[in-house]
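Section 5: illustrative case.
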């Protein structure tokens, strides 16, 4: 059997996020917005998947798939629920989780902010406040001081370009944008502050301001993490669709790339890697986006396994650094689509690596169906179902399909080595 082209230390993982999985993240900005009237969030997160309590069971699920990595976030709102008040219990919890990963042979890939922040932070200017980079750096430093010696990769921010991507693709209708604005005004009033903001519900007219703020925060976080441990690979994860030009669509494609990705890909030149989070391909014609025929995913675009390789290729071309696929998946209630999608996408990624693009690992989003932000529990992207009453996890066929992919690559590596 031919060599797979993947290095021995290639990371095979799943990605999760605290707020979406843990439940009862009551000190966070997102929790506050879910309970604001009006709210853009379809429903509150509530107990989510009870992941805070069931983390050991969940790590067993990851290990049971034969994976060697897991990406998760440390929730700042749990660690610093009030300004200047640090929860030893929360730090203890995340330290146990890191050690639990290592005990199961899983590399801990830690996200320092996966959209959510403390409520007090959101009410005091959020990421655009003058002291925001320093406060986030302090949070990164306290996490690093506790267990930074045991983590494998550090992701500062999750998808700081998501809102640009949504707006460039007109993914949020005008009425949703108006509701978002009303929600943030109501939240500020309820919090008794001048403004209220959160990382994944940014008003259209504040995009540039937040991009600059996120850039300052990323740099401050990277510096704080590196000050604690200079050898830890640090990067930022961005949302990136595979932008493809049909004849005559090159100018539109390039404009989209410039507006949504290129700032962060250039910023990543100073990082150790770029995190790529890919879910779809967008085809550009001379008049705009071209609708592609074929089976559609839950986002309304054609299912295209090749989108991952295309996104990874572009990210590396511009950034010049190695790529870590920090998220990739498919929104669909039909798990047969997911079970077919994963092997095909990984095959394309393997070919891209064989062609010379450096890729550190692949994390599938996500371990289990969870709280998908404004869409609540209506969007399924998990390898496991979660019973909303009992919180029992049930493996889907796609989990077995992913486990097979990993097993086959390891087998091919062993054969090639012998």
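Designed sequence:
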């Amino acid at each position: 059997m031919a060599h797979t082209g993947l290095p021995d230390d290639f990371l095979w993982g799943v990605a999760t996020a605290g707020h979406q999985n843990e439940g009862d993240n009551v000190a966070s900005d997102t929790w506050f917005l879910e309970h604001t009237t009006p709210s853009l969030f379809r429903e509150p997160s509530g107990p989510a998947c009870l992941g805070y309590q069931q983390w050991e069971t969940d790590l067993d699920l990851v290990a049971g798939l034969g994976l060697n990595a897991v990406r998760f976030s440390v929730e700042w709102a749990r660690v610093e629920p009030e300004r200047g008040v640090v929860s030893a219990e929360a730090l203890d919890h995340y330290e146990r989780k890191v050690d639990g990963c290592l005990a199961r042979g899983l590399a801990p890939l830690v996200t320092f902010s996966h959209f959510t922040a403390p409520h007090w932070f959101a009410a005091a200017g959020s990421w655009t406040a003058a002291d925001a980079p320093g406060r986030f750096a302090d949070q990164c430093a306290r996490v690093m001081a506790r267990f930074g010696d045991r983590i494998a990769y550090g992701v500062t921010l999750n998808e700081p370009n998501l809102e640009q991507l949504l707006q460039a693709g007109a993914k949020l209708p005008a009425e949703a944008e108006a509701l978002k604005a009303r929600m943030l005004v109501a939240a500020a009033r309820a919090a008794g502050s001048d403004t209220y903001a959160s990382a994944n519900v940014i008003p259209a007219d504040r995009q540039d301001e937040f991009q600059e703020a996120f850039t300052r925060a990323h740099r401050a976080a990277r510096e704080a993490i590196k000050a604690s441990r200079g050898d830890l690979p640090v990067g930022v994860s961005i949302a990136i669709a595979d932008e493809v030009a049909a004849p005559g669509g090159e100018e539109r494609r390039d404009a989209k790339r410039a507006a949504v990705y290129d700032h962060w890909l250039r910023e990543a030149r100073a990082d150790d890697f770029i995190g790529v989070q890919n879910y779809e391909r967008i085809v550009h014609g001379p008049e705009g986006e071209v609708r592609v025929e074929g089976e559609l995913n839950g986002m309304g675009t054609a299912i295209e396994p090749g989108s991952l390789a295309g996104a990874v290729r572009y990210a590396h071309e511009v950034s010049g650094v190695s790529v870590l696929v920090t998220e990739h998946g498919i929104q669909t209630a039909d798990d047969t689509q997911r079970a077919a999608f994963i092997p095909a996408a990984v095959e394309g990624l393997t070919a891209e690596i064989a062609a010379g693009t450096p890729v550190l690992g692949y994390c599938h989003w996500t371990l289990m169906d969870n709280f998908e932000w404004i869409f609540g529990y209506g969007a399924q992207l998990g390898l496991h179902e979660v019973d909303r009453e009992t919180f029992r996890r049930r493996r889907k066929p796609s989990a077995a399909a992913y486990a097979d992919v990993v097993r086959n690559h390891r087998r091919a590596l062993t054969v090639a080595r012998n």
